[in-house]
Amino acid sequence: MDVLAFGVQADEKPLLERAFAGRHDLRCLDVFLTEDTAPLAAGHEAVSTSVNADLGARVLRVLAEGGTRMVAQRSTGFNNIDLDVARDLGLTVARVSYYSPYAVAEFAWTLAMAVNRRIVRAAHRTRDFDFRLDGLLGRDMRGRTAGVLGTGKIGEAFARIAHGFGMRLLGWDLAENPACLDLGMEYVGKDELLASCDLVSLHVPLTSGTRHLLDASALASMKDDAILVNSSRGGLVDTDALVAELRAGRFAGVGLDVYESEAGLFYLDKSIEGVDDDTLARLMTFPNVLVTSHQAYYTAEAVGQIVEATLRNVTDYAEGRRNENVLVPAG
């Protein structure tokens, strides 16, 4: 089957090509799927897309008109896909329902410790042979309280690391995770968690019900010296409200691997043309904020699992099977 993969990273391309070799005819593009690039898929029965692809109604219609019948998204999240329109068009849509939770959880902790211990500022100083410690004072994590919003596989992995640091654990989710309870986690309401925690990490999917889960009111309820980490989805945080809190001098540190308006920015080189996103630009000016480009999942283990799941999704579709990754079955 002819497959066109959009938004393929340089490190990802050889893994995809090796996996698909001899199974399907695969073509990889580094451009992302948008309304402008969607016509490139004409004649390809299947397309594979990345998390920042535009799979809204207009793009899906262009794909369907060009002969595409299957969309294989290389991510767990699918908030960028209009599933109702896909269903109406008779498109099969599949995602990757599982990959290494440790990749994201470990990176979330990387962000937390980097802002806590001022690693970026320290590294910039020492490259200039400035070895002062002024402004680099961090805090022990042991004995402090970690709040985990979303205690699925990734949240559980994050909690295990927090437990290893000797932290008290608070959790918030629709259902309690027995493994987190075994770690001593106490489940509380969101408001209590935010008001009580020294470190808050987000691990919930982005839905209509979780968009701006941390809005102005929620952010205001957090401790002035709290650390906030988001390695899940940018839309969980009201970024304008976060900027307002930072301008008021709040938060010991903020680590963001995602941003609610990251589409069209993240995974692209904007170093020459710059960006016209004033909110993102303002975020970058705060010395206690660290922004990375949606790379928490980006380990050899996780990407390998994503590639294998994508191959299975395409192969199962081609052979008339339906697996647990299918969001919209064949029409």
Automatic annotation (TrEMBL):
CDD domains, A to Z: LDH_like_2 (cd12183)
Superkingdom per UniProt: Bacteria
PROSITE patterns hit by this protein: D_2_HYDROXYACID_DH_1, D_2_HYDROXYACID_DH_3
Keyword Transcription regulation annotated: no
MF term (GO), any: D-lactate dehydrogenase (NAD+) activity
InterPro entries: D-isomer_2_OHA_DH_cat_dom, D-isomer_DH_CS, D-isomer_DH_CS1, D-isomer_DH_NAD-bd, D-LDH-like, NAD(P)-bd_dom_sf
Assigned EC number: 1.1.1.28
Keywords, alphabetical: NAD, Oxidoreductase
Residue span(s) of domain D-isomer specific 2-hydroxyacid dehydrogenase NAD-binding: 110-296
Top-level EC class: oxidoreductase
A Pfam family matched in the record: 2-Hacid_dh_C
Domain D-isomer specific 2-hydroxyacid dehydrogenase catalytic, first and last residues per copy: 8-327
Keyword Transport appears in the UniProt entry: no
Family that this chain belongs to: Belongs to the D-isomer specific 2-hydroxyacid dehydrogenase family.
Protein's name according to its UniProt entry: 2-hydroxyacid dehydrogenase
